[in-house]
Inverse folding.
């Protein structure tokens, strides 16, 4: 029986794909106030900076998501001073994104119902801890979250087994008593299943072409029943 439910954050509790554009437009508008480059050229530089940061980090860890490192590399490529631009861009991007975030339809009631049933609820996310805490607060979900696991804390990204082991440890339950809900089939669903958890795909309303070998949630507004038992791989 499922006793703990762990959620991915980005593109599960809210749509990152929808609000990322707002943050990037704020970044490009800011750069346009002191740079002669057009938005397309600035965006190309940002992509190069992202790749540069990944090469420098060299490992699949939470630091690859750190926007401050990306903006640092971007200023290096542009030959611009790091101060005040890097910190300004970091806060501008995230503050704008947070201002436009909205919880996925039905998710607040969905989690409230789990809490009323006595289940533990948490999040398991690839990202640095600070910004993910800010997202949970901005979404109004913080009061319902019992535990948080980030790849920054785990030292590895999903679908690494150590990430899911930490989720299970914090849940206080056995692996087969934990459900993990996320939008990413490889990282969230298959990663959880391979570690003995109940992996559940949040399809964001997409209808799969074929019957999936695991539970699917199309919308958090729909009725959903967790499986009574979980078959370990």
């Amino acid at each position: 029986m499922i006793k703990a439910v762990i959620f991915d954050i980005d593109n599960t509790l809210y749509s990152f794909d929808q609000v990322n554009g707002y943050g990037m437009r704020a970044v490009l508008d800011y750069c346009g106030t002191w740079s002669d480059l057009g938005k397309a050229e600035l965006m190309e530089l940002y992509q190069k900076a992202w790749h540069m940061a990944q090469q420098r980090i060299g490992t699949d860890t939470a630091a690859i998501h750190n926007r401050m490192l990306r903006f640092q590399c971007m200023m290096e490529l542009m030959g611009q001073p790091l101060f005040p631009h890097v910190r300004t861009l970091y806060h501008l991007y995230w503050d704008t994104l947070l201002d436009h975030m909205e919880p996925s339809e039905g998710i607040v009631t969905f989690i409230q119902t789990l809490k009323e049933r006595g289940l533990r609820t948490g999040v398991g996310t690839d990202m640095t801890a600070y910004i993910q805490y800010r997202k949970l607060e901005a979404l109004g979900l913080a009061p319902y979250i019992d535990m948080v696991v980030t790849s920054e804390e785990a030292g590895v990204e999903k679908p690494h087994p150590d990430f899911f082991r930490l989720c299970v440890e914090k849940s206080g339950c056995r692996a087969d008593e934990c459900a993990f809900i996320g939008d990413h089939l490889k990282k969230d669903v298959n990663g959880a299943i391979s570690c003995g958890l109940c992996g559940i795909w949040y399809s964001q309303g997409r209808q799969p072409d074929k019957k999936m070998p695991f539970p699917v949630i199309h919308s958090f507004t729909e009725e959903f029943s967790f499986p009574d038992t979980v078959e370990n791989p």
Observations:
- Strands lie at 4-7, 120-125, 147-150, 178-182, 198-202, 216-217.
- The radius of gyration is 19 Å.
- The longest strand covers residues 120-125.
